[in-house]
Amino acid sequence: MRFLIENTSFGGNLEVNLGGALLSSGDPGPKSTDWHKANIVEVKQIPGKGKKFITIRTSDGVLWECDIAVRSISQTRYVQLRNLVDDGGPFMIKSAHGNYKMYLIDGSVHKGEGEGELETGTDDGVDLENVGDWTLKFLEAND
């Protein structure tokens, strides 16, 4: 599955492919994407005997949210993802689920044991390794 983030501040698009496919940089695609949309529903008790309840949907314009988990192994991809988090958007997200203008509302990176920090940059034109598991949370824009 193709997942494209357009209008990035680092001068281009960031394409990631689901299913563990390797990208041209050698980085794996996202581990997963989760799309969700929660309607707001109130539960009210009807006065009187019998304690009956009704539900009322109180939201009309609920926004899509998307969580994406992706692993970086190269310094280039690591910096791209860090810049994406710093930018915040809005970005045009294109996927099989649909096309949405979205803000990146939260981004985090986890480095496991043995995945130490490396110097920024490249070594003689060869991309250095910089391993991290990223979680990016997007919210549909409504402005």
Summarize this structure briefly.
The chain has one helix at residues 75-87; strands spanning 2-8, 12-17, 30-36, 41-45, 53-57, 65-74, 91-95, 98-110, 122-123, 126-127, 129-140.
Can you describe this structure?
- The chain has 143 residues and is mainly beta.
- It has one domain: Elongation Factor Tu (Ef-tu), domain 3, CATH 2.40.30.
- The protein is built from 1 helix and 11 strands.
- The strands form 3 sheets. It has a 7-stranded antiparallel β-sheet with strand order 2-1-7-8-11-6-3, covered by helices on one side. Strands 4-5 form a two-stranded antiparallel ribbon. A two-stranded antiparallel ribbon has the order 9-10.
- The radius of gyration is 20 Å and the shape is elongated.
Record the SSE blueprint.
Layout (H helix, E strand, L loop, with lengths): L1 E7 L3 E6 L12 E7 L4 E5 L7 E5 L7 E10 H13 L3 E5 L2 E13 L11 E2 L2 E2 L1 E12 L3
Antiparallel strand pairs: 1-2, 1-7, 3-6, 4-5, 6-11, 7-8, 8-11, 9-10
